[in-house]
Structure formats: structure tokens, C-alpha cells
């Protein structure tokens, strides 16, 4: 069991955001091929799904994914404590509480971003989890709710929750508009205000503060790391995953590892074959996560079309790879 005292100080320097329908275990396996150091997160798993559903389906992961964190959605302290304990028992190295999702479905469950209106409840949830696990309990949240852009709101939220034993906050640097915007629009329309995350670090220097939202380049990351402890990348990591191959050298000072896209694709096919043999998993729900592998390269459109072709679903994955890497792609 990992103790709080053995967590590397740079654990949150670079991470891939939890993203519903995207960061499942297949996606995380793929991302781990690209960066050995980045922290990976599950999709949000609700307490109800764990308590009343198929635990293995929600918590199973590949041993290669470490370090990997479990994000929970919920607002009942005892349920969150129970699920946090499950996550630790399954081997997750962090339990993260979602206080940032703005979707109406999540709001109906009384968790996600709407929890920011109840900082004492969040503190109670955090304390309940901290009391039963040894791994870090962290919170991912927004900088505000609706059109209230007061810094005091997020400062007081962080201050209250920190007193309950949370020392790491991942700040999505946009407000969450709970009415009038879709989840997609909530990731694009409310303005980014990175300066509020920077101010939180100045006001709470002993806390670990990482920032999330709209960061797409190595230069942007370096800029944020001047005043913060970490950067969490979401959509860019998914749509342009090759960027992750720069992270270990650029942000952790490790030697540049020479790996090709073809080698990564071959590893993914081997993983597809393993998944088919062990769990009966077809290759296509795995392949969808690597469609950005050749992002920006000549021939990438044809390559994606092959891996997305529903007519090939009954073909072996290795055969599909051969078609995708065929003469037209090589010639391009």
C-alpha cells in the first residue's frame, strides 16, 4: 500500500484529465505507451455505480497504467468513503473527487460543479475519505459557478476543503455555467482565467495546485509551471496524443526515448490481441482511442479511415494494421 509520505513531489506535474467516454483503461494503456511519467485518471465513476453495479467493470485497469488515479462522483460522505476504500484496495494511487462537471445529469445527482456551492459538504466528503485510505485524496474543481467571477468564492472553497485534509487541488480555470450551456460549451465559452489558479498557489503555498483547461503546447506548460505545481491536459492529449512523447524529457528531465508511431501501433495491436484472449474484447473500441496517433501527418486521414471502417470489424487487428500501413500510406 502506498503511504502519503511516499508520494513523489512531482506526482501532479503532468497528468491527463479524466474525460467521460474517453479515458477508459484502453485509452490509458495507450497514453502510458507515450509517457511513462504522466499521471493518468479514470473516467468519473459514480458512487452509485460502484455500490450497486459491477465493481470489476468500473475499476479494472492494466498494471502498466501506474501511476493511475480514480475519480469519483458523489456527495454522500459515507458512500464516498466506501468507494474510496474500494479504489485503494484495487490499487489506485489517488482518489479524486469531481467538483467540476457541469452537466445537468450530474447536477441531478447533486455532485460535480454544483458541489462548489457547499464547501462544507465537500470538506465532509474529503474527511470521510481521508479517514479510511492512505493514498492522497484530491479535488478537481472550477474557479466559479455561473457568472460570478469573484476570486473570493474559489479561495474560500479551497480553504475550507483543505482544512479537511485535502492538500492537492486541480483547478479547471473556467467557471461552470450550470444553466444554459452544454458540457461541451462549458469547456469552451466561459473564459479561461489562469491567474486565479496562480493566485491560489500564492495564497496557499503549502498546497499542491495544478491547472487544467485549454493548454495545448509545451511552451504553455512551462509557463504555467513557473508558478504552479502541475498541469492537467484534457482534449489535446486525446486528439494529439503524440505530444505525450515529449513530456518525460521536457518536464521530468529524462532522456528522449526514440519511439516511432509504427512501434506504438504495433504495441496497441498486441494489446488488442491480449484483450481479445483474456476478456473477449473486440479491437474496435480500443482502436478508437489511438485515431489521433498520426495527427497532422500526411496520409493520416486514410489511416484513420481504415481503423474506423466498420466493415473490417470481423478482421483480426493485425490484418487491419497491415491495411492501415499499406502502400498508399507509406507512399504518402
| Count of separate DSSP helical elements | 17
Cα gyration radius (Å): 20 Å
Poorly predicted residue ranges = 1-5
Strand ordering within the main sheet: 1-2-3-4-5-6-7-8
Share in helix: 40-55%
First and last CA, distance: 50 Å
SSE string: EHEHHEHEHHEHEHHEHEHHHHHHH
Q: Estimate the strand proportion.
A: 5-15%
Structural class: alpha/beta
Question: What's the total count of β strands?
Answer: 8
Major sheet attributes = 8 strands, parallel, barrel
Task: Summarize model confidence as the mean pLDDT.
Answer: 93
Brief overview:
The chain is 44% helix and 15% strand. It is α/β, with parallel strands linked by helices and 332 residues long. The N terminus is likely disordered.
Amino acid at each position: 500500500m502506498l503511504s502519503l509520505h511516499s508520494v513523489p513531489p512531482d506526482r501532479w506535474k503532468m497528468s491527463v484529465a479524466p474525460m467521460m467516454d474517453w479515458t477508459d483503461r484502453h485509452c490509458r494503456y495507450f497514453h502510458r505507451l507515450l509517457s511513462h511519467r504522466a499521471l493518468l485518471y479514470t473516467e468519473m465513476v459514480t458512487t452509485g455505480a460502484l455500490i450497486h453495479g459491477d465493481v470489476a467493470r468500473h475499476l479494472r485497469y492494466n498494471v502498466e497504467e501506474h501511476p493511475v488515479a480514480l475519480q469519483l462522483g458523489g456527495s454522500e460522505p459515507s458512500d464516498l468513503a466506501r468507494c474510496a476504500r474500494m479504489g485503494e484496495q484495487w490499487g489506485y494511487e489517488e482518489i479524486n473527487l469531481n467538483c467540476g462537471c457541469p452537466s445537468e445529469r450530474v447536477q441531478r445527482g447533486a455532485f460535480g460543479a454544483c458541489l462548489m456551492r457547499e464547501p462544507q459538504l465537500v470538506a465532509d466528503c474529503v474527511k470521510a475519505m481521508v479517514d479510511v485510505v492512505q493514498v492522497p485524496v484530491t479535488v478537481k474543481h472550477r474557479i466559479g459557478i455561473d457568472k460570478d467571477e469573484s476570486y473570493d468564492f474559489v479561495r474560500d472553497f479551497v480553504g475550507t476543503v483543505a482544512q479537511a485534509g485535502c492538500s492537492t487541488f486541480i483547478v479547471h480555470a473556467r467557471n461552470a455555467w450550470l444553466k444554459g450551456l452544454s458540457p461541451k460549451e462549458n469547456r469552451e465559452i466561459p473564459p479561461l482565467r489562469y491567474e486565479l489558479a496562480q493566485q491560489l498557489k500564492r495564497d496557499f503555498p503549502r498546497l499542491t495546485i495544478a491547472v487544467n483547461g485549454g493548454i495545448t503546447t509545451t511552451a504553455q506548460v512551462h509557463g504555467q509551471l513557473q508558478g504552479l505545481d502541475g498541469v492537467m491536459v484534457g482534449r489535446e492529449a486525446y486528439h494529439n496524443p503524440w505530444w505525450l512523447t515529449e513530456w518525460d524529457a521536457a518536464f521530468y528531465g529524462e532522456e528522449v526515448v526514440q519511439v516511432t508511431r509504427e512501434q506504438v501501433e504495433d504495441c496497441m495491436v498486441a494489446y488488442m490481441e491480449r484483450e481479445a484472449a483474456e476478456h473477449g474484447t473486440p479491437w474496435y473500441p480500443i482502436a478508437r482511442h489511438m485515431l489521433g496517433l498520426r495527427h497532422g501527418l500526411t496520409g493520416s486521414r486514410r489511416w484513420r479511415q481504415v481503423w474506423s471502417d466498420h466493415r473490417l470489424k470481423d478482421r483480426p487487428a493485425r490484418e487491419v494494421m497491415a491495411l492501415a500501413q499499406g502502400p498508399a500510406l507509406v507512399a504518402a
